[in-house]
């Protein structure tokens, strides 16, 4: 029932705005409010957040299936309608819950996660932004970039170095409000794809934050930021890649059954059939990988190596499917007037964010060398 409702919502409420959002590279604030209100009315907002904090309480498997459906529309519209709430907000305590967690789950505020820096992408522990203790306060200096939703966020979770001598255990996380003195949301860094899911710089110049704004104990910042990353990788990367690939394949099937060349439908040509067969097989393989790792997560297991496999394989699969789709459509696939060109650009980043494919291959290989087949 949930999947059917999500599917209809995307078709009726989100799809009509895709062209506008792609062209303008933004979701109008009034449209965002309208979509969020409609999603909340149907119980579709914050579906992946725990029930005890006001979310939908969907399991990892459930969310991966929903994320497949999200792959049929634009990421920016998904974020504005269904929410893009950092899972680590569940680690808020006392007043933090009242100020950040509950309002975010209710859709009253937007919260973004600020980790990435110019010299710290896949290496999340390599950040340079510092937070120096000053009595009951911390003084923050540094910068972030490529921060998703920074242009619409009301507050941020940021990672900082509080003790350089402790490496990754010397990183702490803070909650910071937009408008805090010394804190500036910089320019939008426009990307090749995922238009309207804008990314911006964050700049900190002697920002003074009370200790009460720290998320979790000092030194637990990397854990706070990454504690829910496996579910994100499974859903927003694994599930979403499968959904986008399914959309691309269906477009190709429809086109192959209609387009005629040399007196016959192109679907009659064996080379086109081979590409369709490859697409279907790879999509099926990725989908089973996603659901298996999600099921293990729901059973309380920690399939981190499998999650790396899912992130690596699903994102690379999407890239191959998108490339074959452009080939099947030919010149029409390369034309900006057709949606395929947009999907091809959107697909490329999935092999980069949340850990580049090369990083996850290293994680998988190290696990195998250490644990052998046990990691599978």
Automatic annotation (TrEMBL):
Domain (Acyl-CoA oxidase/dehydrogenase middle): residue spans on this chain: 112-207
Annotated Acyl-CoA dehydrogenase/oxidase N-terminal domain residues: 1-108
Organism domain of life: Bacteria
Pfam hit, one: Acyl-CoA_dh_N
Alphabetical UniProt keywords: FAD, Flavoprotein, Oxidoreductase
Cited SUPFAM superfamilies: Acyl-CoA dehydrogenase C-terminal domain-like, Acyl-CoA dehydrogenase NM domain-like
Needed cofactors: FAD
EC number: 1.-.-.-
GO molecular function, one term: oxidoreductase activity
EC category name: oxidoreductase
InterPro entries: Acyl-CoA_DH_CS (IPR006089), Acyl-CoA_Oxase/DH_mid-dom (IPR006091), Acyl-CoA_Oxase/DH_mid-dom_sf (IPR046373), AcylCo_DH-like_C (IPR036250), AcylCo_DH/oxidase_C (IPR009075), AcylCoA_DH/ox_N (IPR013786), AcylCoA_DH/ox_N_sf (IPR037069), AcylCoA_DH/oxidase_NM_dom_sf (IPR009100)
Sections of the chain in a coiled coil: none
Domain Acyl-CoA dehydrogenase/oxidase C-terminal: 219-369
Family affiliation: Belongs to the acyl-CoA dehydrogenase family.
Protein name as annotated: Acyl-CoA dehydrogenase family protein
Naturally occurring in which organism (per UniProt): Microvirga arabica
């Amino acid at each position: 029932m949930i999947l059917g409702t999500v599917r209809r919502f995307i078709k009726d409420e989100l799809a009509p705005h895709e062209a506008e959002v792609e062209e303008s590279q933004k979701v109008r604030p009034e449209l965002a409010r309208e979509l969020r209100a409609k999603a909340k009315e149907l119980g579709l907002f914050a579906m992946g957040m725990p029930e005890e904090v006001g979310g939908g309480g969907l399991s990892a498997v459930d969310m991966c299936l929903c994320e497949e459906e999200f792959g049929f529309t634009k990421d920016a519209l998904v974020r504005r309608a269904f929410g893009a709430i950092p899972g680590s907000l569940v680690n808020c305590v006392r007043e933090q819950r009242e100020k950040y967690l509950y309002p975010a789950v209710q859709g009253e505020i937007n919260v973004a996660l600020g980790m990435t820096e110019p010299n710290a992408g896949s290496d999340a522990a390599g950040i340079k932004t510092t937070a120096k203790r000053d009595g009951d306060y911390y003084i923050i200096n540094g910068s972030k970039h490529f921060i998703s939703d920074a242009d619409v966020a009301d507050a941020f979770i940021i990672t900082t170095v509080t003790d350089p001598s402790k490496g990754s255990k010397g990183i702490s996380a803070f909650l910071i409000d937009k408008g805090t003195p010394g804190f500036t949301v910089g320019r939008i860094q426009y990307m090749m794809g995922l238009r309207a899911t804008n990314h911006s710089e964050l700049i900190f110049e002697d920002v003074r934050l009370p200790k009460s704004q720290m998320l979790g104990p000092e030194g637990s910042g990397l854990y706070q930021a990454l504690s829910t990353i496996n579910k994100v990788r499974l859903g927003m990367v694994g599930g979403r890649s499968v959904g986008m690939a399914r959309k691309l394949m269906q477009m190709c099937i429809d086109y192959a059954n209609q387009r005629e060349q040399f007196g016959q439908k192109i679907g009659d040509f064996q080379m086109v059939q081979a590409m369709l067969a490859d697409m279907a097989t790879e999509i099926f393989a990725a989908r089973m990988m996603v659901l298996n790792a999600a099921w293990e997560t729901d059973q309380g297991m920690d399939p981190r190596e499998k999650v790396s496999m899912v992130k690596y394989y699903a994102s690379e699969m999407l890239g191959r499917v998108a490339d074959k789709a452009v080939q099947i459509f030919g010149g029409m696939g390369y034309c900006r007037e057709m949606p395929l060109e947009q999907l091809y650009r959107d697909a490329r980043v999935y092999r980069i964010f949340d850990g580049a494919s090369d990083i996850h291959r290293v994680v998988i290989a190290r696990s195998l060398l250490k644990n052998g087949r046990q990691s599978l």
